[in-house]
Design goal:
Blueprint (H helix, E strand, L loop, with lengths): L3 H15 L9 H13 L4 H16 L15 H14 L5 H13 L2 H15 L1
Helix pairs in contact: 1-2, 1-3, 1-4, 2-6, 3-4, 3-5
């Protein structure tokens, strides 16, 4: 589990990335807002993708697989609590299984993540 300082650093990124899992239209403006929050927290595109894959997607991906998924953004405190619960309950023994599941979990937001990553890389230079 992360230190309190690291959780405080990650929480805005977790919250921003959770928006990828809302059942709403997603455009370049949305990608830019998420990219800016990632940049403000000091994460690179690769680091943010790992956060998305290992911390955010396992908690929120199911929303996009339901017939009537949530379209109202989750609150930052709720996102923080859900992800912290996930991280505390994650078994190191089953880490290989988490890697296998992450492909499916990321598939539901692959297009949206590409847009965010493009924004991050465009403004990194």
């Amino acid at each position: 589990m992360y230190s309190c300082e690291e959780i405080d650093r990650r929480a805005p990124v977790w919250h921003a990335l959770s928006d990828l899992f809302l059942d709403t239209e997603f455009d370049e403006s949305d990608a830019g807002v998420i990219a800016e929050k990632i940049r403000a927290a000091g994460f690179s595109a690769d680091q943010a993708e790992e956060v998305l894959r290992r911390e955010v997607a396992p908690v929120f991906w199911v929303n996009l697989t339901q017939v009537a998924g949530e379209w109202v953004p989750w609150g930052e405190a709720q996102v923080r609590d859900l992800i912290c619960d996930h991280l505390q309950s994650r078994s190191r023994f089953l880490a290989w299984f988490d890697n296998l599941k992450s492909y499916r979990q990321m598939a539901v937001v692959r297009s949206e993540w590409r847009q965010v990553r493009t924004c991050l890389e465009r403004n990194a230079s």
